[in-house]
Amino acid sequence: MANNFYRFKFSMTFMLIIISALVIGCKSDGKGDKEPEFDVDMTEIDEALFDNINQAKQIFYAMPSPLETAMLVKSAGAAYDEDLLNSIDNAGNYTTNRSMALNLGIYTCDLSFASLFDQTQTSISYMSAAKKMADGLGILDAINEETLERLEENVNNREMIMDIVSETFMNSSSYLQENNRQAISSIVLVGGWVEGLYLATKLVDKDSFEGNKLVTRIIDQKLSLNIVMKLLEEQKSNPDVAAIIDDMNELKAIYEKISVTTSEIKPSFDEETQVTTLESETKNNFTPELFAELSAKVESLRESYIL
Amino acid sequence: MKRSLFVFIIIALCFAFPQSGKSQCKGFAKKICKAELNPFTHDGNYHAAILTEGEEAELYKTFYSDQEYRVAICGSVGLPNIEFKIVDAHRNELYNNRNDDYTNVWDFKLDSSQQLKLVVKVLKAGNETEEPESGCVAIMFGFKVK
Question: Which of A133, A155, A231, B65 keeps 20 to 30 A from A225, CA to CA?
Fold first, then answer.
């Protein structure tokens, strides 16, 4: 009888272990369990956009990648200035996870920027610096010798080079996400984003402030800053992320002085090109004084990240 | 002894499955979905999740003026149609692929930069008695290099 009782107890214990493991191990990422608030910090924005957020199983806050950031700076008419990039000689100085993650983003942005201007040798050097950061973070095989060889083989093929940069960044970020290192992944994105903002502020021609596309790009980052904050908030228990949230709050305090209003968006489909244009207009109150304040803050943040 | 080994294997497999699912998702995104962006350049970001019929995912992203974008939504084999819509900050629906026979790509550009929401939903196949399908859903963006 007692034997049967113990056998029953033993079986029940194992059942409980299996059920617990199923619940813990087999459930999804669980992001959808949260009810994130998403307050778009832009004038004339309707909170209703975020009403149904808790219905979704998974929420993604998509920051611009370092590649997109570099492309936005270049397409706004910026010139290439290699002196602005973070020197590859600094790569050996980064030994903490925080500094390696920030500078993986920074070097990837610099690498993308150099690639967009067909600076192939510089691109290869910056890919090596990015590799050093990725290796230091334990990101296995995101960038390997074969990547560097492929870059060298395609020196005259910008599209292929951009494809290689995009692939290596995807390898790094997906590796971090798959290994539940979202905090590091977010810091990498912040590094790349701050570097793009730094390059943009440094490359603005201050004599032609009005109607300057690069200035518009800098203002536009007010929208991305909201997404940066939401992404970081999800990982705020990580001390490195918490410190970066403080940095971003300093930037946010300046961006809050910039008012941006937007008209209603009207989609217009072009049969010939099969492309839809989202037609709208925006207005802002950005001034050279606000620009100077923002530039100084971006420079000091970036300086603290590359030291 | 045999029973303990069996239980251990079940637990180990259970812990291993989420990782394996994520890795398969990455492989799927890289091999299948990225190709859908051609001739656009993939931005390098990776957004993928395992979704079951009837489930939704949402993505918030800033899209910039004067850039041409392609969004590609891909579901793994066996999943029913995936509906996706783009909503603006005033909750206006700017696009719904339901009107385009559930196409998995959409090309667009913007006059002014906007923060938009992308809502992706795996539709229900219709048969309530069958086990709902689950699979990887990847959301990827490409842009034209200028």
Answer: A133
Closest Cα in chain B to A45: B89
CA angle B140, B145, B146 (to 5 degrees): 150
| Cα–Cα nearest to B116, from B59, B65, B42 | B59
User: What does the pLDDT look like over B72-106, one tens digit per residue?
Assistant: 999 999 899 999 999 998 889 999 999 999 999 99
Where along chain A do its domains lie?
60-306
Chain B residue closest to A170 (CA)?
Answer: B44
Cα distance between residue A80 and residue A76, in whole Å? 12
Q: What is the CATH number of the domain that holds B62?
A: 2.60.120.380
**Which residue, chain included where needed, has tokens 């983003």?**
A105
pLDDT-derived band at B24 (thresholds 50, 70, 90) equals confident
Looking at the structure of chain B, the number of domains it has is 1
- State yes or no: pLDDT of A32 exceeds 90: no
Task: Report, as an integer, the average pLDDT of B110-123.
Answer: 96
Which residues, 6+ apart, have CB-to-CB distance to B46 below 8 Å? A170, A173, A174, A177, B26, B29, B138, B140
Band the pLDDT of B1: cuts 50, 70, 90: low
**B49 lies within 8 A of chain A by CB:** yes
Contact yes or no for A277/A270 (Cβ under 8 A):
yes
- Global pTM reads 0.83
Give the angle B73-A193-A303 at the CA atoms, nearest 5°.
165
CA distance A95 to A117: 30
Say yes or no: ipTM exceeds 0.95. no
The reply to whether residue A177 touches residue B46, judged by beta carbons under 8 angstroms, is yes
A42 contacts B45? CB cut-off 8 A? no
Q: A21-25 long-range contacts, Cβ below 8 Å, gap at least 24?
A: A21/B10, A21/B11, A21/B14, A21/B15, A22/B14, A25/B11, A25/B14, A25/B15, A25/B17, A25/B18
Query: Which residues span the domain enclosing B50?
Result: 2-143
